[in-house]
Amino acid sequence: MNDVKPERDWFPLDNAAKIFPPITGRRKTTVFRISATLKKPVVYESIREALRLTLHRFPYFQVRIRRGFFWYYFDRIPYLPPIERDPEYPCMWDPTRTPGIPLRIRLSHERIALEVAHALTDGMGALEFLKTLMASYLSIEEGLSIPSSPHLLSPFSVPHPEEIEDSFARHYQAGVPSSSIPPRAFHVPGHLIPPGRYYITTGLVPSDGLRELARSYHTTVTAFLTALYFLSFYTIIQEGKAKGSKPIIIQIPVNLRRLFPSKTMRNFFLLMFPRIDPRLGEYDFEEILTYVTHFMKMESTKKALAPQIKRNVGGERNPFARFVPVFLKDLVLSRMYEIMGDRRATSSLSNLGVVQVPEEMQPYIERFDFYPPPDPIMKVCAGVVTYGNTVSLSFGRLIHEPMVERVFFRWLTERGLPVSIETNVQEDYRS
């Protein structure tokens, strides 16, 4: 078990986080967003006090990223992370730039947005932080008394030492084989938008309607959405908008806390890589769905994922890697990521699942949204989160052409599911 304690003034990045600082740049910021929309406008003074209380509960998030001689690390800061007016384009800041604070709060009318660098935590860790921030805010602003709940880390509880552990190191098994690397993947064509922009298109659909549609195909919502995402890229190839000379590979994050005992609030996820190959012949939705359903059942198990932990942690423990200066590690890791990273996936689809909060908080919250990190190689990525009867499906893209989300939402509406579209895109680009 990792012996890092929450009150320490510094601590190393976890195993999954080590790749992020070397690959961070103007377009690939490695920053994602989870936001909550309330039913009343947000009060700045109350959210500032709520952030102070929340960071007292999550002291390991009140940090900045520092570049050491051998590795990057976090050290504690005595001040609060920025609370800002929400800009037009989310997630477009470099968390490795001075002062290196990997977390920001952004406000817009009724919305509280948490933007966080992936080096600090994953989607589930960020969601727990945001829920505690919301509980603190509603306690201050609305006078709510929120009792202890399995759906919330109370702002007044004491951090558990295991919340800051590197759970990859804890569950490393030396005897298992290392995992293989996927082949190079198909990527959508398109013209990159100027640096600093990130186009978001969110479709809001009723949860009960989506669940019923998935049930009609005898599958889960997650498998259904993944199959539809595959179909969207395949349709683009079939319509002649791209050449299908490589397999379509979708990157699916797996929350390892469901498989391995862990309380960590840091990164603890691995990736699955289901794929279809258009060169093998034609596919319809049912065929893709059958494949995805069986793949996810087979590959989201301890036995299937342990080899990835072995490969990642084993590389970190290599004596040569441990004692190479960080500037050389940056060159090696960024090159390795070019070879083994995003070029091996067409896109990513991250589903945070159903957000659960204490009953006392529910009347004050309208919905949650989840924006994936921008990626100039994959160009288009998707994030999904559900709250109440609203499923938020957000596509983030770095190209002008909205071809993927257009196919995706058109398919849903053609089957009778109402979709309400929101976007920050001002241009009218017809692909």
Distance between the termini: 52 Å
Approximately how much helix is present in the residues?
25-40%
Largest sheet: 8 strands, mixed
Number of strands: 16
Order of helices and strands: EHEHEEEEEHHEHHEEEHHHHEEEEHE
The average pLDDT is 93
CATH class of the largest domain: Alpha Beta
Label the structural class.
alpha+beta
By CATH, the topology of the largest domain is Chloramphenicol Acetyltransferase
Give an overview of the whole structure.
By secondary structure, this protein is an alpha+beta fold. The protein folds into 2 domains: 10-170, Chloramphenicol Acetyltransferase; 199-304 and 323-423, Nonribosomal peptide synthetase, condensation domain (Chloramphenicol Acetyltransferase), CATH 3.30.559.30. It is built from 11 helices and 16 strands. The chain has helices at 20-23, 44-57, 123-141, 167-170, 207-216, 221-238, 285-299, 302-317, 319-322, 326-340, 403-414, and strands at 10-12, 31-38, 63-67, 72-76, 83-85, 103-108, 111-117, 199-206, 248-255, 269-272, 275-276, 347-354, 365-371, 380-387, 390-397, 420-423. Strands 8, 9, 10, 11, 12, 14, 15 and 16 form an 8-stranded mixed β-sheet that branches. It has a 5-stranded mixed β-sheet with strand order 5-6-7-2-13, with helices on one face. Strands 1-4-3 form a 3-stranded antiparallel β-sheet, with no helix packed on it. A hairpin with a 4-residue loop joins β3 (63-67) and β4 (72-76). α6 (221-238) crosses α7 (285-299). The radius of gyration is 21 Å and the shape is globular.
